[in-house]
Amino acid sequence: MTQAIPMTLAEKLVARAAGRESVRPGEVVTAKVDLAMMHDSGGPRRVAPMLERLQARLWDPDRVVVISDHYVPAVDAESAGILDLTRKWVKAAGVTNFHDMQGICHVVLPERGHLRPGLFVVGGDSHSPTGGAFGTYMFGVGATEMCGVLVTGEIWLRVPETILLHWTGRLAPGVVAKDMILAMCAKLGMDGGRYQAIQYAGDTVAGLAMQERMTLSNMAAELGAQTGLIAPDTVTRDYLLAAGVPAGEIELAAWQGDAAAAAERHDFDAATLSPMVAAPHSPANSAAVGEHGNVSVDQAYIGACTGAKINDLRMAAGVLKGRRVASGTRLLIAPASARTTAEAAADGTLAVLTEAGAILLSSGCGACAGYGAGVLAENETCIASTARNFKGRMGAGSSKVYLGSPYTVAASAVAGRIADPREFLA
C-alpha cells in the first residue's frame, strides 16, 4: 500500500483545487477557483473594460461576489460615478451576490456565509488572506489576474512553502490578536512571509474567537505572505453555522495539516506579550506600548477590516465606559459592517462609545484607505486600529500614524496620548 505524502494545510487546499492527490512546494499548478470576490475600487471599473475588449463573459456569475466598500457613501461626483458603474455592471453581468454598502468586503464575505473550509478563493484586494481564518485558501490578485479568473474560473500558482507561526500560553488582559500580529511583524519583518503560506497555530490561536483569528489572517499581508491560514475547528464551525452555512458543507477533519509535513516554524510566547504599538511608517516598526514615550494624538481611529469588528468595538467600549475622550483629541469609529453596527446598537456598545464622545462614521474602508471622512491634515498624529500606517496612506504626507489594538486606541483617546490600555482595565 502506497504511503500518503504528508502535506501541510496549504498543500492540501492547493492540491484539492488543482485536482491532484498531492502537491509539493515549488510546483506550478493550475487551480480551479471556487469564488472570486471584488470591491468597487479594484473591481468592475478595472475589469469591465478588459472583458469588453475580450468580448468575454463571466465563467460563472454565481461564483462572483461584489461588495461596495471603498467609495461608500459617495462624497463627490467621481465616487458616485464609480458606484453607479459598479451597480450597473453587476446587473448586466448577472451577478446576484452583490452586497452594496453593507460593510468592508473581508468582513462581509464570511458574515454572509460565502466562505467555508476547503475552498480556494481569490479576492481583488491585498487583505484577502482574511479568508484563511476559515480554512479557506484565499489571496489577493490584481485586476489583470482577476480578469483571467472571471473568464476561465482558473488561476495558476506556485505551490507555497508553509511558515508555521506557533503560539503557546495565555494572553494577559488587554492583550489581543492585534498585539500578536504586530509582534510577529516586528520579529519577521514585512517580507518575512516571502509570499508563502503562513499558518497560525498553537493553543493560543485555538483559544481565540473567530473575529480575533480574522485579525491574524488579515495581516498576513503585512508579513508579506500569500495567505494566512488557521486550521478549522469547532469555533470555525459555530461561526459559519451562525452565518447560515449548512452543517453538511462544513468539513473540519479533512482540512488539518499532517504532523509530519515539512514547515518552517517560529515560536512565540503569548504570556510574555505586552500591548504593542507600531510607529510610523511600517507595521514592522512595532514595540511594546511603553517604549513609545509621551506621543500626543490628534485623532484616534477605530475602523477597517482588521480593527472594527464587533469584538473590536466591545474592546473599545471596555476602556471607554464611564470615561470621556480627551479634549483636543477626536475619536472616530467606523464599524466594519452594517451588521456590526446593528449588533453594537443592540447590546449597548454604541451607546458607550458615543457617550464617551466618539464620532460614529458609516461602514466602509474610509480613512484607512485615505477615502472620505477621517483623513489627516498636515502634521497631525493618529493612532489607529487599522492594518497599515504607510506614509500618506491616511491623508497628508506629513501626518503620522501609529497602529494599536482597539484597547490601545481607546485608551489613547482618553489620555490624549499613546497609552497602555492595561491602566484603564484594572
Account of the 3D structure:
The structure is a single chain. This protein is an alpha/beta fold and 426 residues long. The protein has 2 domains: 9-268, Aconitase, domain 3, CATH 3.30.499.10; 278-425, Aconitase, domain 3, CATH 3.30.499.10. Helix content is 31%, strand content 18%. The chain has helices spanning 9-18, 44-54, 77-93, 105-111, 143-152, 177-188, 203-206, 210-218, 234-242, 310-320, 338-346, 349-355, 406-415, 422-425, and strands at residues 28-32, 35-39, 64-68, 97-100, 120-123, 137-140, 154-158, 162-168, 197-201, 227-229, 264-269, 276-278, 286-288, 299-302, 330-333, 359-360, 381-384, 400-403. A hairpin with a 7-residue loop joins β12 and β13. α6 packs parallel to α8. The N and C termini lie far apart (60 Å).
What secondary-structure arrangement, pairings included, does this model have?
Layout lengths: L8 H10 L9 E5 L2 E5 L4 H11 L9 E5 L8 H17 L3 E4 L4 H7 L8 E4 L13 E4 L2 H10 L1 E5 L3 E7 L8 H12 L8 E5 L1 H4 L3 H9 L8 E3 L4 H9 L21 E6 L6 E3 L7 E3 L10 E4 L7 H11 L9 E4 L4 H9 L2 H7 L3 E2 L20 E4 L15 E4 L2 H10 L6 H4 L1
Parallel strand pairs: 2-3, 2-5, 3-4, 5-6, 8-9, 8-11, 9-10, 14-15, 14-17, 15-16, 17-18
Antiparallel strand pairs: 1-7, 12-13
Helix pairs in contact: 2-5, 6-8, 10-12, 10-13
